[in-house]
């Protein structure tokens, strides 16, 4: 009998692996609705939906391994990183999902609230927060909406050799800023940004990508702490913020 592996678990959702099947349990069925519809729309490889019995979604495991992990060196080839960039470009060029994404005002308000929390609670030094808040300002500009994954972490991109075998965890997918996906993909792995952009195949504003690194890290610290993760681990969000100083 296959063992049950807990992939991730917190009070919002849990993912278990049993053999070649992933079981995703989510208290919010809206997120699961988005995930299933986004995977059906995406023009890049995604996991096969085996069955759905709310609150459980069963997905087939993807071949290959994750592109990497935050805080650890990636062993994936430059070609694999470029393939990830090319997959992102295919997604961003696809027709938009029919549901709304986050507005610029919502993102700015969330950022300001998280910065205030970080300073008020003494979680991070005020100069670190203030500097990165200024860096993040470059991301807060109008953009042409694209079909974004919106959580394109390297752990969500699977590769086999130099090829992309699939992308997982689509519950945040929505119209949004394409550069946010590229920044999320390269967060903590700045050394692979050139490879990703080579595969993406078009010029981008590097200041905006750096801004999204700061913004994503600033708004992520509290969530990570409250859900049992450590944003201060080497190479993770707090190190990303320090690197911008």
Automatic annotation (TrEMBL):
InterPro entries: AGP_Transferase (IPR051678), Aminoglycoside_PTrfase (IPR002575), Kinase-like_dom_sf (IPR011009). This is Phosphotransferase. PANTHER family: AMINOGLYCOSIDE PHOSPHOTRANSFERASE DOMAIN-CONTAINING PROTEIN-RELATED (PTHR21310:SF40), AMINOGLYCOSIDE PHOSPHOTRANSFERASE-RELATED-RELATED (PTHR21310). Residues 38-201 form the Aminoglycoside phosphotransferase domain. Pfam families: APH. It comes from the Bacteria.
């Amino acid at each position: 009998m296959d063992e049950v592996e807990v992939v991730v678990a917190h009070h919002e959702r849990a993912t278990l692996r049993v053999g070649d099947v992933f079981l995703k349990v989510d208290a919010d069925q809206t997120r699961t609705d988005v995930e299933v519809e986004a995977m059906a729309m995406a023009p890049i490889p995604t996991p096969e939906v085996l069955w759905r019995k709310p609150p459980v979604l069963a997905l087939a495991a993807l071949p290959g391994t994750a592109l990497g992990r935050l805080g650890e060196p990636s062993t994936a080839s430059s070609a694999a990183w470029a393939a990830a960039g090319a997959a992102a470009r295919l997604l961003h060029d696809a027709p938009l999902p029919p549901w709304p994404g986050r507005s610029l005002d919502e993102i700015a308000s969330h950022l300001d609230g998280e910065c205030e929390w970080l300073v008020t609670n003494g979680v991070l030094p005020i100069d670190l927060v203030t500097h990165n808040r200024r860096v993040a300002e470059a991301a807060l500009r109008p953009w042409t909406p694209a079909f974004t994954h919106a959580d394109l972490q390297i752990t969500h991109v699977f590769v086999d050799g130099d090829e992309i075998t699939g992308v997982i965890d689509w519950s945040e997918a929505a119209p949004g800023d394409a550069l946010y996906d590229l920044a999320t993909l390269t967060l903590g792995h700045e050394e692979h940004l050139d490879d990703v952009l080579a595969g993406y195949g078009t010029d981008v504003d590097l200041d905006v990508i750096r801004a999204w690194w700061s913004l994503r890290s600033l708004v992520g610290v509290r969530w990570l702490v409250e859900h049992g993760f450590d944003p201060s681990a080497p190479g993770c969000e707090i190190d990303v913020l320090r690197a911008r100083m």
